[in-house]
From TrEMBL:
This is Ubiquitin-conjugating enzyme/RWD-like protein. InterPro entries: ARTD_PARP, Poly(ADP-ribose)pol_cat_dom, UBC, UBQ-conjugating_enzyme/RWD. It comes from Ascosphaera apis ARSEF 7405. Gene3D superfamilies: 3.90.228.10, Ubiquitin Conjugating Enzyme (3.10.110.10). Keywords: Glycosyltransferase, NAD, Nucleotidyltransferase, Transferase. Coiled coil: none annotated.
Amino acid sequence: MGRKEFMRDLKDATEEEFPDISNVHRGEDDGAVACTSAFTVDGSTTSVDLVLLVLDLSLYPDNHDCLIYATSDDAPPELLEILEATSQACEGLSVHEMLIQLSAVSRERERPVQADDYDSDDGAFFGPENSSLLEAHKDRIQADLQACKLAGFRIGLYPNTPLFCISIRVSKLGISSEAQEAWNLNPQQYIVCLLHHTDSYVPFDRLLQSDVINPGVQIFVGLCNTYKPALAQARLAIDTGCTDNTDTDSKSQLRPLFIGESLNNLMNRQFPPIVFARARYGLSWSAAELYYNDRQNGLVNKHTDPKYHNDPDDTGSGHASPSLVSADHLAEHLSPTLSSTAAKVISLPLVAMQFALRHLVNCTKFCLVCHCPTGDTFEALKPYVCSNPLCLFQYMALGFGPTVQWEILTQPYVVDLLVSFAYHAAARGSLNHFPTGMGLNVPHLDERKYPLRSPSESPQPSSNNILIGPSTDFLSYIGTGKIDASISLETKVLTISSEPNDKLEHVKKGDFLLLDIGDDRRILCQVECASLPELKFVDERDFASLFSSPLVSTMSLDEARRTLGLHTFDCEVLLWDSDFDSLPDIQKRQTIVYLLGMLPSVLDMQRYLNTEGTKNTGLAKTLPKPVYDLLRWIIASNRSCIVLDDIIEKMEARADERKRLDGIDGLLQFRFAQGAPDKEQRFVDAVRERQKITKNKVPTFYAWHGSPLHNWHSILREGLNFNRVVHGRTWGDGVYMALDFHTSNSYSSKYQSLDIWPQSTLGVKAVVSLQEVVNSPKDFVSLHPCYVINQTDWVQTRYLFVQCIKLVDTQGLKRKREPDAVKEQDPDRQAKGNTQNKKLLLPAPEHDENSDPLVYESDESDDEEISLLKPRVPFNAKEDHCLLDPTQTDFIPGVSHPPSTFRLLGPPPYATSASTRVLLSDLKATYKVQKSAQQHTLGWYMDPELIQTPYQWLVEMHTFDENLPLARDLKDAGLTSVLIEINFSESHPVAPPFVRVVRPKFLPFIMGGGGHVTQGGAMCMELLTSSGWSPVTSMESVLLQIRLALSSVEPHPARLELGQNAARKTVRSYDATAAYAAYVRVCGQHGWRVHEGFQKISQWALQNGPVQE
């Protein structure tokens, strides 16, 4: 929308009234709003003409930068600092909101009013008045953030606020691509750690004064596309612990991590006392966490207990993690404990970021609730809770983990698969892990109707006894305590006739009851009011129509009144009053089968969630509570990553030609990944190590694994292992695999039965997986008749193929033609598919799967923040600075003007964060142009390595028209370019830059020279004065105008002074002092205005010493 929305908002603003703001109108430049404001400074009110300039209208109104400056000549000097702070506060605001902001600060209010103002106790700490408070801690802040920078992190500051951010690219964390997909991470995104100091800056040594939970610093860890989220986003996260996900297109949108709630709970409640214990007692991270949890659990072990000090293998960053992840800033200062002196040099932001990354990168090793190591033998790909039932209860109650709604909306067929696996495992008696500790109240199954089966038998639920419909806290069904009652369909009143009726005392408005009126007829009713012994129900809602499950046999009250007439019926109120945790295992399995029998199909639930008006209620208020909780458990406890590769539309499946394997037809293809994030790296290491020994040209091969359907629920949670004997171990211990699909499929189909989840859209009948295996067969346990491998690090799951009997058409589940490029396979170990013994062909990946992870370099700079730190960190840029065709130009960057022959200036004393941000944005835009155009057509070049401060640019002008005298003179002098220096003031982009030629020297105008170069080397152009400059002029345009001026032949062409030759080292440079004097002189001659910041530029440059020759 951008410009169109800005113009609409501007028009509306001109018709509004704002306190102390008048004459709001469109400014002269595009994106400018002009107005007059009455500012009160030191008790004196002054009217000042202002311009609010949106620097990039394409980003308006969500992510744009704003610059506010005064155009009145008599604006008070104190106003500049106020306008700078207000410019920051106007980032991402609409025209209306910016004018409100300006109106607030014009009268010296305590802090500018935010459009997204929050009612928080510490909200007032955001504002310009904090500059003095932060100034008192400036040296410590500089040292702490510099430590983060030197450790490899990006830093972000929010001027005049006690808010800082530390960030790192996901691609630099060594997380496998499988884990990134499972954790919803993009390698180009940033992990951002926000630290907000509530009273004053909290250094590390202050944190050690006590082990309180809240030491005066709030922490939020999230995900962002940029290294620094927008200020409004950061404030919302700190104030509420939540992110605003309504604007998903905003580049600086702060998003929650997949374990965000768990991780932020850890950082704000447990991190302070844990780091206190570690520093005070000289413990490792694991020992400090164990010590903290022991204390929380009431254990009074002293910190000297050996168990806290015999921890050589700290649960840390995992196998082969990058040094950035495994580094431990705090450990460098423990000897063995932390002295008070050492505490003063430790960076709290760095320790917090390293601690957060420790739990993020290794999240599968820690419980999401108590954060203790899970101790699992299976290295999962997704995090979960430990074996403590209380943790599972809190996990569900606190809403950690994936949401049911999100999974159903985004991956409905994966959810169908997960539920099918759980149903079949329970029905076949192989389910051994149960959702205990969740407080499930379930029906007590009537053995007369539902005789308990042995694990070898398959229970077949009767459709006459299955309920589906809305529910909240209370739902009756088959139970041990039936309550006799009568229901009047005319008055919609239930009268309890049996005594006692205390089991219904907790029924309240909005609850649902199921009434059995006999002859297999049940009525689902919602309570309108409860006044025992009577309950009045509401109608006008057909609950059974919410879902189209084939097992629905329950009437709503409204439907009963229509079909049965307005009569009174004797009935039974059926209770769910059995504690699931206390049931025997066999009865738990039976109960799970029946609860899942009540679950509608996943597509029905998806349609319901997409229905208008159901967004807020969701499934939690629509499904029976035990059924919903069981569904949550099935989804959340899945420790693997599964993604559908094929396309399903209207129950017809077809292949995605980009992803489909060739040679395996008629089966649904899922990508399937297991194992902890570092297991993939261990697999890669094993591949490389064995290839050095075996010398195999192809280091891996692919093989099939088949297992009965009832085993897959546990395989997803425990991995492929050989802990249990299923088919015998004739050929030894290990994972059994085969090259031929039919061999493995025979194991998968061996125990097929009718135990298919009735509501499954897919109708999952059999499953076979495809693994990638280290090609070192001599080290296998067995080779014939199948491969047996006992080293689990040598096996990585890649695909899952599912036989579905409910899809209408699966003929499209095959490739129409062979892939253009296939992955090379060992001809001696070529996997075969299910089509006429055809060899399996895998589409070649976009990059080598066994290569190191891609590292995406940043296209942004945090130089704005770095400029505030000491010592100065040079500008960091990519190596691909430009496109250079040697057949079109003789220019080579840096040859004519080596870096050692000119000066690089330090940061100017007048630098402001507002102007720095604009300059960094201009630098980024200019480099983008430079990297996208051929140098011989562009004609100018900037070396990013020579940008020590954004206030000084050094540019080489080159590849002039060969017919120009200047081009011939440069060639004769052995040069290929002219070196230009550009300096900026703190008023940029309101004020023009100062531009001068550094070398070589040009022939003066009075001697017949041209090119708009003065005798002192300054460029003589009205564009570069206050008379001709516009704040919206881009630097790309400035560079073009300079090159055109140098190429101009009117009134004379540019020529070089004689006697200059690079080989003889006689190329002469201009003196900077002469250039400044010439600029002022020429402006006076032409009547051009010299901008006010010019004097500061000249003083800054001259203080840096003379040009090096």
